[in-house]
């Protein structure tokens, strides 16, 4: 199907919730919804038919959780369930469309969890292959982790020719659970070749409006929206959603007026909602799509616009001329590489160049491991730097974001190898102005090579905003007369082609004494000629002085706030003397930076001077509190929070060893039971809470998922636990949560209960009898601290 062609004339209307309808049809708590495709296929057919009769253009298959992990133990294979689901949907849809529905895997991906990118890809691949025959679209939905979305999109694009639509879930703060903002989601998924992007679930239509506005303003492809029918509430023991079909449609119409082109419903919606939506949108002319071009690079939680106020690309993770880094790469010392990444981001780098070009190593494998490790610690975008196309693809494939490739040049062989990689993964590319004749002597010749690079890039489907031209500086010591030609080329190329520019400015000083003087001067000159993104050493204060000053003088740093913050107050001394390479960090800074490999050693050294509990109470917990405050303020996000928690765990191990060897009292601050309630097999949220509680010093008894209320009560009684945490993701299992709470309260009156999960809020938690509602993992920690008393800390 040509989705764009269809959307020229009318808005595409998807169906509503499957789970809500299965509840109405009598599905029992704990029953596997996907099993209905085989065991009770007529019920699934009826639901699809009701949506078609209500006016839906598309029905989604009943395969949201039909992956090998969730189907384990069901007696059915992925192929059996998915093929049956597609057949049922196809029979009901008739001349209408069928979307193969693929939801999240249900396990945390690296670095938060154990599921690797490669494993996630294989799980999604299996679903795609099983369901592509008979479907018209592939819908990847309700995904909260951009990394998981990337694995799913690649699996869909590489194993099917169907259009791929991908929607993520967002919280009211405008970010996904893992910290992805709408702009970043759009730029990454658009780059990967999605045919539509958008948002679904988690929020009602009114709460989703500002998120959709951001998505529409950033997207050049169709935008899809499937809100919930408001927020879940309890009435007479039954769960319901608080937005009527009429109110739902009035808000969704606003999204259509913004430019959303694919609309439907999620949790709590029904054929009534779709019927009202069809009536509202019949005859409404879709807004035409418009190109929204932006030269940018993205991490999973940040989009950096290239050239906006000077974009600093950190150069230090490149072994050229760096003996210590070469040794670290050969020896596999990832902690040294991580420390270089952290130092650069702390001193102002906005993008990090990653180059593992050392002879005698498996460069693709090394760069793959380094990219995974670096992106788990810092939240700035990465630039994958290699002369080996295989290494570039290895790094960029596992990168969680939209990377920059460094580099391509004007040789046809280079362009034919690199541009397909850039197009497939949605990367920007640095184009070096050299060709078969080498680096040209004149600015004009550099312009000619840039023209060839940009023209060829367009042949591969890239555009100007995907290209960053490097005019290549020569060394003043050897080719002094040609140094200015590089600078002259910068404005010529920008004016003629409208692209951004970069430059490894420090090359100019090679072979000269006091290189930093030449480097800083040339950097200032290049910026005055229009350089957008210098590749430079942000840990050298002379470079940062030039850039901060330039931002003031070009009116980017309004009211000179950043300049004054750096040089006018208490921070001035710290800025003037950034941490040197190899300098020992405090254990607090190690925790805040998430440098796991250094935490244990640092704690062991500290234990030679201080008492274990003194370290816990005066160093570890306060450091984790600082990280928590940054998380609350939106300065960091879940991956960084968990990374710091795991870093604390390494330090705790050293402390516990010391306590055990000395025969002292336990370091535990209290015991907490965690469980995902009966009938619910989703435990990502619970596992995140577990990690954070343990690293704040609490002992956690994890009962797992699909836990019977009796087991929760028996364990709490046996272990003398006074705080139980219950989690639920599915609306169909909230009644089991309430049942568990009732049993706890009736049999263990001194035991308190905190609850959390995507379908819950404070009002709902209170209605089912919970003592506390934990909005997120940090909230659960605060509840535990209040229950067990701050005096223990």
UniProtKB/TrEMBL annotation:
What domain of life?
A: Bacteria
Q: B12-binding domain spans which residues?
A: 669-793
UniProt-annotated binding residues for Zn(2+): 201, 266-267
Q: Where are the transmembrane segments?
A: none
One annotated Gene Ontology cellular component of this protein: cytosol
The pathway noted for it is: Amino-acid biosynthesis; L-methionine biosynthesis via de novo pathway; L-methionine from L-homocysteine (MetH route): step 1/1
Cofactors, names only: methylcob(III)alamin; Zn(2+)
EC number(s) per UniProt? 2.1.1.13
User: Which residues are in the B12-binding N-terminal domain?
Assistant: 574-667
Which molecular function term from Gene Ontology is one that the record holds? methionine synthase activity
- Cited SMART domains: B12-binding_2
- Gene3D superfamilies noted in UniProt: Cobalamin-binding domain, Dihydropteroate synthase-like, Homocysteine-binding-like domain, Methionine synthase domain
The residue ranges of the Pterin-binding domain are: 310-554
Keyword terms: Amino-acid biosynthesis, Cobalamin, Cobalt, Metal-binding, Methionine biosynthesis, Methyltransferase, Plasmid, S-adenosyl-L-methionine, Transferase, Zinc
Q: Which residues form the Hcy-binding domain?
A: 1-281
Give GO terms for biological process.
homocysteine metabolic process; methylation; tetrahydrofolate metabolic process
Q: Which reaction does it catalyse?
A: (6S)-5-methyl-5,6,7,8-tetrahydrofolate + L-homocysteine = (6S)-5,6,7,8-tetrahydrofolate + L-methionine
Q: Which class of enzymes does this protein belong to?
A: transferase
Specify whether Amino-acid biosynthesis is a keyword of the entry.
Answer: yes
Q: Does the keyword Cell inner membrane apply?
A: no
Function of the molecule: Catalyzes the transfer of a methyl group from methyl-cobalamin to homocysteine, yielding enzyme-bound cob(I)alamin and methionine. Subsequently, remethylates the cofactor using methyltetrahydrofolate.
Q: Which family does it belong to?
A: Belongs to the vitamin-B12 dependent methionine synthase family.
Q: What is this protein called?
A: Methionine synthase
Which organism's genome codes for this protein?
Peptoclostridium acidaminophilum DSM 3953
